[in-house]
Design brief:
The protein folds into two domains: about 35-265, Rossmann fold; about 270-330, Alpha-Beta Plaits (2-Layer Sandwich), CATH 3.30.70.100. The chain is about 30% helix and about 25% strand. It has twelve helices and 15 strands. The chain has helices at about 35-40, 85-90, 110-115, 135-145, 155-165, 180-190, 210-225, 235-240, 260-265, 280-285, 310-320, 335-340; strands spanning about 40-50, 60-65, 65-70, 70-75, 100-105, 105-110, 120, 195-200, 230-235, 245-250, 255-260, 270-275, 290-295, 300-305, 325. The protein starts with about 35 loop residues before the first helix and ends in an 8-residue tail after the last helix.
């Protein structure tokens, strides 16, 4: 059999070689950098990080991130918005054109050898030897970590396989794995030993609904142990179910950063009135100063300002308008993402 060449190393896990390896804010340009007092509390900090490729494409522009320790940080944006390029710069796989960054409060790239053993990662999908078993592939990943004790390798590998549900398939050749199994093996590689920071690029890619739920549960478990999880995704379900903080990318720029609650609060509250007298109701809402008053069927909507909904209802009744229903819905996460990025997101998963 002809030996296969070594596979590509897209952010291989926790080695000591660079080669192998908060408040809400919006930003139209460079974001405000974290203060020195905040820096020690950040797992990831970037200042003006940019990457322009030889083709002239500016993939990431003046990116300033502040990822709190212990958070599950959702790094979101449409395909091509610069998420993977950013992750590759963080891990030393791509050299930034300008700017600086720190991982676990250590300046990069000078601190890569010291920091990478504390960081687990999955970038641009799994890459393993097809002719080796899942267990043997993890053995090679573990052996690449010079800080890992080889005497406990078997136990670590067995535990990692168990955590991702691959114990029964550990002896199978990697070539026989499904896409979902390959993704699970990559997650196992990122968790061969306790990490202070785990960086995952689309970790549920290729998984069926059950596998997706299991991975989300695993991320919650890792975070509960005190590990910071930085997860790139374009799935809104991922954000809503596992993330505490969010950064949103658009065309290489950070357009929002903050907690999930901060993001939700961006949606301007609206009022929805159900009535048979829609024209009269729209006139009353406009007279009260509500913006963007619209009529659709038997519903009238408008953007709330300082007005209290109960006062609006009282005005409608005073004018003799029958009010069959009144609600104050807020914009959904999907609406907010479309507003921030100008593009839709995959809401499934």
């Amino acid at each position: 059999m002809t030996a296969e060449p070594p596979p590509p190393q897209p952010g291989q896990i926790g080695t000591d070689s660079a080669a192998s390896v908060a408040s809400g804010r919006t930003a139209a340009g460079p974001a405000e950098a974290a203060s020195p007092a905040e820096a020690g509390q950040l797992a990831i900090e970037t200042r003006g990080l940019s990457k322009r490729f030889r083709s002239g494409q500016l993939a990431v522009s003046e990116l300033s991130l502040a990822v709190p320790r212990g958070s599950v940080y959702g790094f979101l944006g449409p395909n091509g918005s610069g998420k993977t390029t950013t992750i590759r710069m963080l891990l030393g796989l791509v050299q930034p054109t300008s700017g600086s960054h720190r991982l676990l409060d250590v300046p990069m790239p000078g601190g890569l050898n010291a920091v990478l053993p504390k960081v687990g990662s999955l970038v641009e999908g799994p890459a393993f030897y097809s002719f080796l078993s899942g267990r043997a592939n993890l053995g090679r990943c573990d052996a690449a970590d010079r800080t890992a004790d080889p005497r406990t390798a078997a136990a670590r590998i067995g535990e990692a396989l168990e955590r991702v549900g691959l114990s029964a398939a550990a002896a199978k050749h990697y070539r026989a794995y499904s896409l979902g199994m390959k993704q699970r093996l990559a997650l196992a590689a990122s968790m061969l030993r306790p990490r202070e920071l785990v960086i995952l690029d689309e970790p549920t890619n290729g998984l069926d609904p059950q596998g997706t739920r299991e991975v989300r549960g695993l991320i919650r478990q890792v975070a509960a142990d005190g590990t910071t999880v930085f997860v790139s995704s374009h799935l809104l379900a991922e954000v809503e179910q596992i993330c505490s903080h969010v950064g949103v990318m658009r065309a290489g720029q950070l357009v929002f950063e903050g907690t999930l609650a901060d993001l939700r609060s961006r949606g301007a509250a609206r009022i929805l009135v159900r009535t048979t007298e829609t024209s009269m109701a729209a006139k009353v809402l406009g007279g009260l100063g509500l913006a963007d008053v619209q009529v659709a069927g038997r519903e009238v909507t408008g953007q709330l300002g300082e007005q209290a909904p109960e006062d609006i209802c009282a005005c409608l009744v005073h004018e003799g308008i029958p009010v069959a229903g009144l609600e104050t819905p807020r914009a959904s996460l999907e609406d907010l993402f479309v507003e921030l990025t100008g593009e839709g997101f995959d809401v499934n998963g």
